[in-house]
Amino acid sequence: MKIALVTETYPPEINGVAMTIEHLAHGLIARGNEVEIVRPRQFRGDKPATRESYDEWLCAGMPLPGYKGLHFGITRTGALAKHWKKNRPDFVHVATEGPLGWNAIKAAKKIGVPVVSSFHTNFHSYGKTYGYGTLMRTALAWLRYIHNITILTFAPSEDAVRTLTMENFNNVKLLGRGIDTALFTPERRSETLRQSWGAAPETPVVVYVGRIAGEKNMPVTIEAVEEMRKTLPDLKFVLVGDGPERKKLQKQHPEYIFCGMKRGEELAAHYASADMFVFASETETFGNVVTEAMASGLPVLAYDYAAPACCVVEGESGRKAKLGDKVAFLEAARKIAAERARWAEMGKAAREMTLTISWNAVVDDYCENVMNVIANPQPTGA
């Protein structure tokens, strides 16, 4: 079969969505399929990558507000339909609800190609953070409309499947997340890197990895770290990532270590060189950073939903709090700080759990779901 994967963000090191598309592409190719990636140009002169495994088709890209260096795709329905008539896929998978995704759905329907979609980002839940709370229901209605005109919507966690189903999204199936345990491993721990943070071998180092922005609930992350420092006054807090809140936090907390965005092996070394991972975000559909941290041998402090719900065992590989319960989250922070002597043991349990997560199994489930729905399509909204 030939499959077209439509995505805004690429290559795989950019974020979790791109990483998922990359693993999906290679998994499909390994099973004898042909794959084409449809994506926007990310910079001037960006050209389709020369790859032995799959083709790329690039459309125009426009800067994505608030995401420096990322572009969203703009193309015409007719241009995609013309391209796919010449290079007809057996089905199209749309992993974006933006203009590129909308036009890809229309183009596929125009030439009679089945379309599936995947839900990766809770844009509608960002409303309170960014001051458009009154538009949240409108945003959700648009997302529901987009996904319901495809024959199947994939969601990355059981929480997301339940939530979307309750919001009347049709035919929602799980598309889980695997983890690259060869890249993310405790073996990448670097004492040299720790020394650059001012950390001795015995110094507790807590790390946050992700966008430094309002939707990641940074104030609660900071409060949790400060609670931990009451028990562990020599604790170092390392933030890996970038975003609109970074400059403000650097002014407020010059004692924190801000490393900027890291990718690949450098990112893996930053995880492994820490001792614990903290993540107070309430807006994830999955949270790949959680399993990356666990694979790196770190216990996790997080809210009990999405990836932490299915991967973190309370008291064994980390501490969790009920989603949205700040008081409980801060109590969990105090509790895990008091367990400093157990962090290595908890990190080992976290690592062992991730060794059971296979991208092969994820792709197998994906293929089965797609083949079933293509063979027995359900009515769609358009």
Describe the structure.
It is a single chain. By secondary structure, this protein is α/β, with parallel strands linked by helices. It has helices at residues 16-30, 77-86, 99-110, 127-130, 136-148, 158-166, 191-196, 218-231, 246-252, 264-272, 288-295, 306-311, 326-338, 343-354, 359-375, and strands at 2-6, 34-40, 55-63, 71-74, 91-94, 115-118, 153-155, 172-174, 205-209, 236-240, 257-260, 276-279, 300-303, 318-321. The strands form two sheets. The protein has an eight-stranded mixed beta sheet, with helices on both faces. It has a six-stranded parallel beta sheet with strand order 11-10-9-12-13-14, sandwiched between helices. Strand 1, helix 1 and strand 2 (34-40) form a beta-alpha-beta unit. The radius of gyration is 21 Å and the shape is elongated. The two termini are 25 Å apart. The mean pLDDT is 89.
Which homologous superfamily in CATH is the superfamily of the largest domain?
A: Glycogen Phosphorylase B
Strand order of the largest sheet: 4-3-2-1-5-6-7-8
Strand content: 15-25%
Overall radius of gyration: 21 Å
Helix content: 40-55%
Give me the secondary-structure category: alpha/beta
What key phrases describe this protein's structure?
single chain; 382 residues; alpha/beta; Rossmann fold; 8-stranded mixed sheet; 6-stranded parallel sheet; 15 helices
What is the topological layout?
Blueprint: E1 2-6, H1 16-30, E2 34-40, E3 55-63, E4 71-74, H2 77-86, E5 91-94, H3 99-110, E6 115-118, H4 127-130, H5 136-148, E7 153-155, H6 158-166, E8 172-174, H7 191-196, E9 205-209, H8 218-231, E10 236-240, H9 246-252, E11 257-260, H10 264-272, E12 276-279, H11 288-295, E13 300-303, H12 306-311, E14 318-321, H13 326-338, H14 343-354, H15 359-375
Parallel strand pairs: 1-2, 1-5, 2-3, 5-6, 6-7, 7-8, 9-10, 9-12, 10-11, 12-13, 13-14
Antiparallel strand pairs: 3-4
Helix pairs in contact: 1-15, 2-3, 8-13, 11-14
